[in-house]
Amino acid sequence: MTSCGHTLCFLYLCRQTDSSMKKLIITLLAPAALLAACHPLQSQGEAAAERIMRQNVLNPASYHAIDTRVDSLLTDIRYNMDALALAKQILRLEHGTTPDADTRPSAAVAELEAKIRTIDSRLTKGAFTGWRLHHRFRANNMSGQQVDDEVILFVDREMKYCQGILSLSQGKAEEVERLREIIGRALRRGTSDL
Question: What is the pTM of this model?
Answer without folding.
Answer: 0.68
